[in-house]
Design a protein that fits this description.
This protein is mainly α and 91 residues long. Helices cover 69% and strands 0% of the residues. The longest helix has 17 residues.
């Protein structure tokens, strides 16, 4: 029983540790850096060290896209086309 509780605690600790975004990247993104915003969007889109969340990815892509950041505009367009994290919209 003790081994099981240690295993569960270890797994829980790993999940908590893995659920994070580099604080420096997040700081830059929140300060308005379009390339950092795009990177945060990529992290949420792919589920890299966080739970995959298309809605959050779209929010970060939109911030970068509104600044004219072409890669974010492209990926946001893809998400609209396929309805990933937002309502499908071909326009």
């Amino acid at each position: 029983m003790k081994k099981l509780s240690v295993l569960i605690f270890s797994l829980y600790s790993f999940i908590l540790y893995a659920q994070s975004i580099n604080p420096e990247l997040l700081k830059r993104a929140n300060a308005g850096d379009a390339s950092a915003q795009y990177e945060v969007g990529n992290i949420y889109y792919g589920g890299y060290n966080v739970l995959q969340d298309y809605k959050k990815a779209a929010e970060w892509y939109l911030k970068a896209a509104n600044q004219g950041y072409a890669p974010a505009q492209n990926d946001l367009g893809y998400m609209y086309r396929y309805g990933e994290g937002l309502t499908q919209d071909y326009k």
